[in-house]
Design goal:
With 346 residues, this protein is an all-alpha fold. Helix content is 48%, strand content 2%. The N and C termini lie far apart (49 Å).
Length: 346
């Protein structure tokens, strides 16, 4: 963030803690922050070390691991079902095909955890911890360039744990329940509502696009013949359109990638929202949070607030991540603790 943002955080930290405690009260009692304190005391250290190594190897992996947790929780709840192999699994659903990634990293983490605590920690919980660590490590990277309120204030969030792994994947649920880059704002809002999340969650969780890349195929419809107009999407910055048309020609294979957050690719900050104010949202589902009639009375003001108040964004993002991580978790005797995240136990 700019230096002024750190000053705002002193006034925001109280709000952060109050919001955090309010969210905690709403988390199902089956999930706790100390779930593995006795059964796997080194769990958080093991996961953090593996995530840090993966991001050092490929910076993009931070975004990929956050996305895995998101795409897991929206289908069957947070039960690790997105990790299951099989032609009828969620990996092959349209929103995930050739898109979700990071499975090898999860395998590596799981192997290390199994060595320390065999048969104890679920794949679903590993996804939740890895997503949190990916955000915090991306925030830490920004400290080299700019002060960040989440880091300088010393605040993080504790992941609620105790999920068990599901026994089945749900490809149909993934096709129907996961947001698409071309969905309308009303459709996206409804998909979030279907899993108990509200419009604040829509905007704050979209802020995860401050890191990561997107393939041309996810936004190319905006570049050449948008909605049959014969021209590019008029809500997109013209210079950006020109650059992207060169990067993603109509004759291309669609797999070339570019940054979701132009000019702030690897730092977890509020720059994503600043982009939306000037027509530089890459995906249609990004830009519609600020532009258009549907946004005017719903999400636009939040985008504006987050663009100018990074502390508010981090606070709301944290709360939304905790809420999302609590979508229909399997606990108690439901599900299992998978030995291999890709297959159910034999």
């Amino acid at each position: 963030m700019e230096g002024s943002a750190s000053g705002k955080f002193s006034g925001c930290s109280c709000l952060f803690m109050i919001s955090f405690l309010m969210v905690c009260l709403g988390v199902r009692s089956e999930l706790t922050t100390d779930f593995y304190n006795e059964s796997c005391p080194n769990l958080l250290t093991i996961v953090r070390k593996a995530v840090k190594s993966a991001i050092k190897t490929e910076t993009r992996m931070a975004a990929s691991l956050v996305r895995l947790h998101f795409h897991d929780c929206f289908v069957n709840g947070c039960d690790g079902s997105v990790l299951l192999d099989g032609s009828d699994g969620e990996k092959s659903a349209l929103p995930n095909l050739n898109s979700v990634r990071g499975f090898d990293v999860v395998d590596t983490i799981k192997s290390s955890v199994e060595s320390a605590c065999p048969g104890v920690v679920s794949c679903a919980d590993i996804l939740a911890i890895a997503a949190r660590d990916s955000v915090l490590l991306s925030v830490s990277a920004g400290m080299k360039l700019r002060r960040n309120p989440l880091q300088s204030g010393g605040n993080t969030w504790k992941v609620f744990l105790g999920r068990r792994d599901g026994l089945v994947a749900n490809q149909t649920g993934a096709n129907n329940g996961l947001p698409f880059p071309t969905d309308s704002l009303d459709t996206i809002t409804q998909k979030f509502a279907n899993v108990g999340l509200n419009q604040t969650d829509v905007v704050s969780l979209s802020g995860a696009h401050t890191i990561g890349l997107a393939r041309c195929t996810t936004f190319s419809s905006r570049l050449f013949n948008f909605s049959g107009t014969g021209a590019a999407d008029s809500t997109m910055d013209t210079e950006m359109v020109s650059d992207l048309q060169t990067l993603c020609p109509q004759s291309g294979d669609g797999n070339t990638t570019t940054s979701l957050d132009q000019n702030s690719t690897d730092l977890f900050d509020n720059h994503y929202f600043k982009n939306l104010l000037v027509g530089k949202g890459l995906l249609s589902s990004d830009q519609i949070l600020f532009t258009g009639d549907a946004a005017a009375s719903t999400t636009k003001s939040l985008v504006q607030n987050y663009s100018s108040d990074s502390g508010l964004f981090f606070s709301d993002f944290t709360n939304s991540m905790i809420k999302m991580g609590n979508i229909s978790p399997k606990t108690g005797s439901d599900g299992e603790i998978r030995t291999n995240c890709r297959v159910i136990n034999s």
